[in-house]
Design a protein that fits this description.
With 462 residues, this protein is of the alpha+beta class. It is built from 11 helices and 15 strands. Strands 6, 7, 8, 9, 10, 11, 12, 13, 14 and 15 form a 10-stranded mixed beta sheet that branches. Strands 2-1-5-4-3 form a 5-stranded mixed beta sheet. The radius of gyration is 22 Å and the shape is globular. The structure holds glutamic acid (GLU) and magnesium ion (MG). Magnesium ion binds next to loops.
Length: 462
């Protein structure tokens, strides 16, 4: 507290992810921080069951249990001053159910912890993850139906930086503020469509990657608000532009507990990893097919096999499925390729310690904890089953005669998740039941709602 006070901090913001992956928080005055650490902060458990419109969705343990508490304890190891909000430092909170003292059943961060722990103990592998997120920046458009328009309409500005398509230097400002947030931001550029940006985060252990992606999304939205703008990670916010992806770079390192876990991996001088320190790649195998170890090929095959269910987590909104399509750079089919951006899983060309998969399935709306937990679970199942992937895509993809289609809608993906007993066993049936109840309510509300499209399409002629 003395150090914080000396740094001019008088408020600590304690944040944690809800089911959607958006930030829930409380601002705690510095002199109340010790009490918050000792006793935790009380929130209503229905925070996990609250829709973006504020409805409390009927999820077991919420309304039916009389809207009980959850307890959020600041994790001071994650404390960092907010570069855009003088006097405020933020940290993540750990969420427990006060009735049991155990993690709250819906806590996405704890779900990911459990899946990572299984990778350690059951496979002897340490997952390494690099998140890659895109977003659109919007400006107020008073009088328009949406209230927001794209910040810039320049076309052809993919892979640019500077004033050409960012006249107000949003990217530079965001990069510098994010650097000071200490979440491993490495760089950024303008993305394909006007007003669309991509900012990259370094790779790390999977929990830190999820924490940093979660904090990144919240920070970008705050920085945009400071500019009087809206940053949206919505999957496909505009009809005349592509969507925003949440690509995930994934590899495993050997923990050293099971010397046979990757028999064809390169023997390297690097020591085995511990859960906290890097070790030898479990994916690199120069003499194996594609230079990929069995572990890598099995993980790849596992993700392909469980994709329809994984989509429920990677593509969690009704809008998510409008991002998929041929010729989009977003996927459309369940396929993989070697350094091929038209495939759902791209294996980038680096080998050695950089051997990894790039899962291009997820869109930017995905809850980082759930996307990563689901992907690890699918990879684990593939490794356990010893599954081999089909031949890689050659050339330009999007040929539905060659590979199966992704689920076409959120209801289809939710049904696939429910039916995938392998994946739901790893994620835990209570969590999956809560998630399905929450998301099916979203589907039901949409199905009752008359959209602008319907009026435009039908009202005049019919
Ligand atoms: N915006 C594309 C997507 O939705 C990805 C573009 C890229 O290759 O970075 O996934
Ligand atoms: Mg991109």
């Amino acid at each position: 507290m003395e150090r914080l006070a000396a740094d001019g901090i008088d408020v600590v913001r304690v944040t944690y992810p809800d089911l959607m992956g958006t930030e829930r928080a409380r601002d705690v005055l510095l002199d109340r921080l010790p009490a918050a650490v000792e006793h935790g902060l009380a929130f209503c458990r229905a925070v996990y069951h609250t829709s973006p419109q504020g409805d409390t969705v009927e999820v077991p343990g919420g309304l039916d249990a009389g809207l009980p508490d959850i307890c959020v304890r600041p994790d001071l190891d994650t404390l960092v001053a907010l570069p855009w909000e003088p006097g405020v430092a933020a940290c993540l909170g750990d969420v427990t159910d006060p009735a049991t003292g155990a993690p709250a059943p819906e806590s996405p961060r704890d779900l990911l912890r459990q899946v990572i722990d299984r990778c350690h103990t059951q496979l002897g592998l340490r997952p390494v993850v690099g998140p890659e997120l895109e977003y659109f920046l919007c400006e107020p458009a008073p009088g328009s139906a949406r209230g927001w328009r794209r910040y810039d309409e320049t076309t052809g500005a993919v892979y640019t930086a500077g004033l050409r398509a960012d006249g107000d230097n949003h990217l530079l400002r965001a990069l510098r503020l994010l650097r000071d947030l200490d979440i491993g931001v490495s760089g950024g550029n303008h993305e394909y469509d006007g007003g669309q940006f991509e900012i990259n985060l370094t790779h790390s252990d999977a929990l830190s990657a999820a924490d940093r992606a979660f904090r990144f999304k919240a920070a970008v939205k705050e920085v945009a608000r400071k500019e009087g703008r809206l940053a949206t990670f919505m999957a496909k916010p505009f009809n005349d532009a592509g969507g925003s992806g949440f690509h995930l770079h994934l590899s495993f390192e050997t923990l050293g507990t099971d010397p046979d876990a990757t028999p064809d991996a390169t023997p390297e001088a690097a020591p085995h990893a511990t859960p906290d320190s890097p070790g030898a790649s479990a994916f690199d195998a120069p003499s194996a097919p594609y230079g990929l170890s069995r572990t890598a090929r099995h993980a790849l095959a596992g993700i392909l096999a469980h994709t329809p269910a994984l989509a429920a987590l990677a593509n969690p909104t009704l809008n998510s499925y409008k991002r998929f399509g041929p010729d989009t750079l977003a996927p459309w089919l369940i396929d993989w390729g070697l350094d091929n951006r038209s495939a759902m899983i791209r294996v980038p060309p680096e080998r050695g310690a950089g051997t990894r998969l790039e899962l291009r399935l997820g869109d930017a709306t995905a809850n980082p904890y759930l996307l990563i937990a689901g992907t690890l679970a699918a990879a684990m199942l593939g490794i356990r089953a010893g599954a081999e992937p089909p031949a890689p895509l050659e050339g330009y993809g999007y040929d539905s005669a060659r590979s199966a289609l992704l689920p076409a809608s959120l209801p289809a993906a939710l049904d696939a998740l429910e039916a995938d007993t392998g994946l739901t066993d790893v994620l835990g049936k209570p969590f999956v039941a809560s998630y399905l109840a929450y998301k099916r309510d979203e589907v039901a509300r949409f199905q009752r709602y008359v959209t602008d499209w319907e009026f435009t399409e039908y009202a005049y002629h019919l």
